Amino acid sequence: MQGGAAxxxxxxxxxxxxxxxxxxxxxxGGAAxxxxxSTATQGGAADATxxxxxxxxxAAAAPGQTSGVxxxxxxxxxxxxxxGATAQAQSTAFGSSxQAQSTAxxxxxxVSLVQTTATAxxxxxxxxxxxxxxxxxxxxxxxxGQTAYAMATGLPGKAYLTTLVGGTGNVATALLGPGDVVxxxxxxxxxxxxxxxxxSLTYSAASTFDFAYRGDVLLGLIGxxxxxxxxGIGFQSxxxxxxxxxxxxxxxxxxxxxxxxxxxxxxxNVIDLGSYSGPAVDLTFGYNLVADGSGGFGxxxxxxxxxxxxxxxxxxxxxxxxxGFAGLGFAGxxxxxxx
Length: 339
Description:
The chain is an alpha/beta fold. It has one domain. It has helices at about 160-165, 170-175, 260-265, 305-310, 315-339; strands at about 5-15, 30-40, 45-55, 75-80, 85-95, 100-105, 110-120, 125-135, 150-155, 180-190, 200-210, 215-230, 235-245, 250-255, 270-275, 280-290, 295-305. It has a nine-stranded mixed sheet. Strands 2-4-6-7-11-16-13-14 form an eight-stranded mixed sheet. A hairpin with a 4-residue loop joins strand 6 (about 100-105) and strand 7 (about 110-120). It is globular. The N and C termini lie far apart (about 75 Å). About 45% of the residues are buried. Mean pLDDT is about 85; it is low at about 310-339.
């Protein structure tokens, strides 16, 4: 039965700072914290939005004195659904410090969990967007503009995957065959806040797929989308890692300090993550962008397994096996004749 949708919104604003009567300096604005949680059951969608605004700093009351700074702001949003229904969480924070964080989660019948998280520090403004859904079509690969974003689809449909993969031949060959199984796809990225002020800030995004499966797992990095960072200015580093949540061990970790290497790595690249004995594979794909200037970087990927590639021997292997069996049979026949 289709359940109803759920929605939650939270807004918080800190008080404005005054001026100190003795020194004449402006007082700092008050802190603000907003938390929104939305949970939908039986197939309904869920949406959560949190907005926090630190109080304005007080003006200086005497010549030569300084004004106060805006208060800290923390905005946290969380959306949870079942049966693959869309869960979306968005957070916005304005202040001198703090962070915005969004988490979205859904469960499926064949994929036990799909979860995304996006986190951004507050330099002045921070916006985060997290989407988790299952089956059929997911999000288009584009830069939605938030300072950190993560959007994942469990058991994506073939038509959607074909559009997402496009002309990236290596990924298409690895994951779009007739018998291939794709457990999930995701789009992740970050953009330096327009009012970041040149401070070095770290933006993070993560997508987790926890699915019942045993066998070989392939990661197909489809493509990257870089904007800004003219001549590489403002870009400091980019980290991408794969974590096995069952063992708490990183399977792989790549860090890039130049855009050319990062763009090449995320373009049409297939990585074998190894074989898993089951009963489930629980992997988190994480991303950290460190920047101190205007620009952004995003990418999309798919994770799955072409079961026929590892389960069925190639034709040459079958031929060698048949010759081996024939040789064993002939040897047994000769022994019988001698006896």
